[in-house]
Amino acid sequence: MNEIRPPASPRTSAHRSPRLARLAPPLAVLGLVIAGWYGLAYSLDNNFASADGSALIIPPPHQLFVGLNAATVSRIASATWVSLGTAAVGFLLAILVGVVLGVAMSFSRSLESALWPWLIAVQVTPVIVLTPINVRVVGASFTARLIVTVLIAFFPIASNTLFGMRSVGTALHDVFTLAGASRWHRLIHLQLPAASPAIFAGLRVSAGLAVIGAVVGDFFFTRGTPGLGRLITFFFQDTRSGPMFVTALIAALIGLCFFLAVAALRRLLVSPWHRP
Amino acid sequence: MAVDTRIAAQLRDVHHRFGEVGVLRDVALTVRSGEIVAIVGPSGCGKTTLLRIVAGLLTPSGGEVARPDSGVGFVFQEPALLAWRRVDSNARLLARGDDAIVDHLLAVSGLLEHRHKWPHELSGGMKMRLSLVRSLAARPHLLLLDEPFGALDQITRHRLHDEFGALHESEGFSALLVTHSIDEAVYLADRVLVMSSAPGRIVGEFAVPFPRPRSDHLRYSSEFAALVGNVARSLYRYAGDA
């Protein structure tokens, strides 16, 4: 008698450790990047022509922290604090401005038609180039830094909020109309929750933009405590490639943290119920 | 305009146009208290428009509409649930603080054990049950239903017909049901109204004499088939090119 056996799964290894299977491809890319990094560092002419043998152009990964004395670490820390503060407060303000604009435009077609072209104009303008004007008008203050950040980051939130608010189904609106719901009640209990997946899609884009605004806008601030952007230009002029790379990595890490914070909040508030 | 207590809703000479297009013409109908009235008609004949006018969601171009002062319940073609609220919270959306009725309705609809689930975790039939529970939790005198069972498979649909019949027996609401299905209309209603193609008007009225509670056996009786046939003939006569 022939025994019937279940067919062997062709994906046995993936079944055994799905987590490892998921992490393997990005880790492989990380390995390639580091290999490329080493390759580039050691293939550049004159990269190690300095007196003490430290890298002049690109430090290989194991030399990143060479030349990081206490004074440099302290400068990087205070610059990180400035840029992190600018990005965080700017991002929160961008959320406020974006959601309020999106909601306001969803309430009034005439307001939408009045504002939308100008919002597009702000969006397609590389706002960074307005930073010098902004600094002249407001001064090289925290406020000026915030203005740059908000101008760069608010648009995806505004447009996604508008889209989300408009995508609420007629039947759902009818349920609230028949219940005699006020506009406020409808906004809080129907439109904003329904729009939240779209709003979070906007937040994900804006989180990165806020960090870009805070760091790149900083290039134009010649007074006050430097942020990460200006510090990078200092280290660039000093030909101190190690600290320059560390500063750039910190900027990238701040961007990553913002992205992960938005993702975590989305997983908490939206993922349990939302099925696209 | 309110109506006397024996009448749940009344329309007189109602007509409606969307721009140049006539949708409804000289519609008159009455739903008596506790009665289920079904409307069948070809696609695009204005059935949904008529229902929205009765609900007060749409003001007709002309004519008189009387509906209960306490408002109406509405069950839409789609369940129209709030995806971000669990079953329990959806059921309570319109309940006006009456927890006992919600618990009772969830229990008789078999949803009590699913009360902590999200809507996306429910089957199509359970979503429609929840939609019905939500509407009935507001204790409406008149329930309007716009093809609520149209998207369900036949077994689920028939099961929901019986559950709806039982709820009607226990809660005593009046209902105006719009449907594509003549079977469904005859099985559920006390009267079936036939609408013509657009601009829709009422062209036929059939009393349904079968006693309640009705059971699945009725669907296979010759009397049921004969009445369905009569309604169908009336419908096809006025269906036009629809």
Give a description of the structure.
The complex is a heterodimer of chains A (276) and B (242). Chain A is 72% helix and 0% strand. The longest helix of chain A has 38 residues. Chain A starts with 11 loop residues before the first helix and ends in a 7-residue tail after the last helix. Chain B is of the alpha/beta class and 242 residues long. Chain B has a domain of 164 residues: P-loop containing nucleotide triphosphate hydrolases (Rossmann fold, 3-Layer(aba) Sandwich), CATH 3.40.50. Chain B is 33% helix and 25% strand. In chain B, strand 1 and strand 2 form a beta hairpin. In chain B, helix 6 crosses helix 7. The radius of gyration of chain B is 18 Å and the shape is globular. Chains A and B meet through helix 7 and helix 8 of A and strand 5 of B.
What oligomeric arrangement do these chains adopt? heterodimer
N-to-C SSE series of chain B? Answer: EEEHEEHHHEHEHEEH
Continuous helix count of chain B: 7
Ends of chain B: how far apart?
Answer: 34 Å
State the low-pLDDT regions of chain B, or none: none
Tell me what portion of residues of chain A adopts beta-strand conformation: under 5%
- Round the Cα radius of gyration of chain A to an integer and report it: 25 Å
Could you describe the largest sheet of chain A, including whether it forms a barrel? Answer: none
> Do you know the CATH topology of one domain in chain B?
Rossmann fold
Task: Summarize the structure in short.
The complex is a heterodimer of chains A (276) and B (242). By secondary structure, chain A is an all-alpha fold.
Distinctive features:
heterodimer, A: 276 residues, mainly alpha, MetI-like fold, 0% strand, B: 242 residues, alpha/beta, Rossmann fold, six-stranded mixed beta sheet, three-stranded antiparallel beta sheet, 7 helices, globular
